[in-house]
Amino acid sequence: MENKIYIFGHKNPDTDSIGSSMVKEILDRKKGTNNVEAKRLGNINKETQYVLDYLNLQAPELLEKVEEGQEVCLVDHNEFNQSVEGIEKAKILSVTDHHRIANFETSEPLYYTAKPYGCTSTILFEEFKNNGIEIEKTEAVLMASCIISDTLLLKSPTTTEHDKKALAELEKIAGIDVNKYGLEMLKAGTDLDDFSAEELVNLDAKSLDKNGSKFVIAQVNTVSIEDVLKRQEELETAINKEIETKNLDLFVFAITDILNSNSEVIALGKRVDAVEKGFDKKLEDNKMFLEGVVSRKKQLLPVIDKNI
Amino acid sequence: MENKIYIFGHKNPDTDSIGSSMVKEILDRKKGTNNVEAKRLGNINKETQYVLDYLNLQAPELLEKVEEGQEVCLVDHNEFNQSVEGIEKAKILSVTDHHRIANFETSEPLYYTAKPYGCTSTILFEEFKNNGIEIEKTEAVLMASCIISDTLLLKSPTTTEHDKKALAELEKIAGIDVNKYGLEMLKAGTDLDDFSAEELVNLDAKSLDKNGSKFVIAQVNTVSIEDVLKRQEELETAINKEIETKNLDLFVFAITDILNSNSEVIALGKRVDAVEKGFDKKLEDNKMFLEGVVSRKKQLLPVIDKNI
Q1: C-alpha distances in angstroms, B142 versus A240, A296, B16?
Q2: Which of A2, A22, A86, A247 is deepest in the core (most CB within 10 A)?
């Protein structure tokens, strides 16, 4: 049957993009829409794999592109340059997201639910509640995992009271100890040894566009910034290759210490001044340490976006 | 006190833009946010004045422009070219809307609630419900009036089951006979005699932009298309002036018969081919009759947008 509705998060999917897609499929089925199917726009990262293994679930299938008129529901993103190939010609039925809105447009009215929360799954949690639909263990674990991932166990400045309230309630339904489970899950995502430098800089990379300036902010989580910096030289080679092939003005690679809530960023490209001006600090050896910075959305993107 | 949050609908405000702004102010106050204030981006039309007179209410104050950083809530629109001067630099806290999304972007996350319903007030009605907030007579009359206006008494193809359900419930709270009140209200809006041709073509005009093509779709409601067409010559002069001063590619002026649910459109500009191709019909004397067409959003805009 071909009139499936696809649900998917952004490219380079993180746990919220995968988990929220799967949760929205469950929610829509419980509401009576059965022709929905969660998809993914890229490889499953190790953190997300930990969640899937915990629940003994398969990952959604890979979606490479969509045809004209394909019905889709977006979660955890809206910008077309972060979405699937062909999105411009798809029929977007709904968006559920917690990011700024940009590089997005439709020719027809749609459902759009955005809230400035820490995580898409917190919005979905409220949709279960508003519709009086029961949350079962599977979706509770998925939503809890998404919240833990996006808020770094409620420590990121993106965290809202809504996320805290949702996670507290989901913890009970999921039957997990959030701190224990959460730290294991986050640590699973920091195992970067298997990745080539090329893979590392693309693992969780967001492409952005401001008045014609193209830039990328990539991020990896770690328990030791020092360990990752041992590979600085090959990382820079990989980043410079990205800049060249994608004609970027700036590439920012944030290495985030999830235990101490700091980041070291490597910045390359002809517009590194946007980073230096934004954080009022000079890059040394192409990098700078940013105390207390862990959130791309709340701490990196707005600052760089304003100065580029 | 200057940290007021302004709530407003689109330029050339119709009843939904004025009424929904006023209703959102009431809703926000009932939810505990008191520094909100409904505003309007243009003159009150005769239909809306009928509603205000019925409730013995003052119109919101005119808002000419906003300063950088001004906190605002948009209702019934999102496209910046339909919004207030300075909107690009404002801080948009929320959007409540039932239109397509385009020419809109923010640098930070926000609340965005769009649903493909016939009327913004139907979405606000559901917000009262979801938050368990009582709907009193004033807001019931306002919301009912918005729904009647946008759906032409539930006869427009934009009407959804949600609008019907909301209007049925609001009718009881408002203590009105929807058909009697609604027809009087709509008829009040069709009294076009006082308006100059220039005013008529701007009364309810939406500016749009597609890949650099600028076009306007304006609409007036009437109980006699023939009456309005008596002024075709001066209307064309006024339209051509708009095309010239605003450098438009196309101006479509729809004269909609609210009793029989049809429209006559006058189309001028170098891209009238978009109208002819879209409706597969030739313009004669710059006009064409469109059987069953009453909705700009659902029947005019998508067809013209696809062909321009």
Answers
A1: 58, 42, 9
A2: A22
